[in-house]
Amino acid sequence: MKILVMGLPGSGKTYLTERLVPLLGAAWYNADKAREMANDWDFSDEGRSRQSHRMRTFADFEKKHGRFVICDFVCPTKETRANFDADITIWMDTISESRFADTNKLFQKPVNVTYHIKEWNNKNHINIAHDITTGES
Fold first, then answer.
1. Mean pLDDT to the nearest integer, 122-136
2. Is the Cβ–Cβ distance between 110 and 1 less than 8 Å?
3. pLDDT band, residue 41 (cuts 50/70/90)
4. 3-state DSSP helix/strand/coil % of the chain, to nearest 5
């Protein structure tokens, strides 16, 4: 199962993911680490599209091998989210803007998400893991 944890930079994507991963026994791909491995720090529309395809490749590999996989990245547009094609989308909607004006400007709020997180707390990851493992998502 492919899980996308998306939202603006600084919204808590990695915070949530690092707590959710062990509960699901999931593989984890973080956008910054993927960009570092690829030596690709291009944040143009083309670079963001390439990153969403890159993250999908990692996630599809894990899913094909029967694992849960969580990818946390901004995934700012309808196009990048369609490129990734998540089974479950968690939107970290905890801040109204990030420290990056260019990302704030192009970020499109998602319409259909599985989980819409509006505040950080110590239970989100537990509740989400429970729903996923019991089929309630």
1. 93
2. no
3. confident
4. 45, 15, 40
Give the Cα separation of 101 and 103 in Å (integer).
5
- Biggest alpha carbon–alpha carbon distance for the chain: 40
- Distance, CA of 23 to CA of 42 (rounded, Å): 33
* Long-range Cβ pairs for the range 122-125 (8 Å, 24+): 124/16, 125/16, 125/19, 125/20, 125/23
pLDDT digits (tens, 9 = 90+) for 77-107: 999 999 999 999 999 999 999 999 999 999 9
Q: Which two tokens stand for residue 8?
A: 């603006």
Instruction: Report the share of the chain in percent with pLDDT over 90.
Output: 82
The C-alpha R_g of the chain, in whole angstroms, comes to 14
pTM of the model: 0.93
**Dihedrals phi, psi of 116, to nearest 5 degrees:** -115, 100
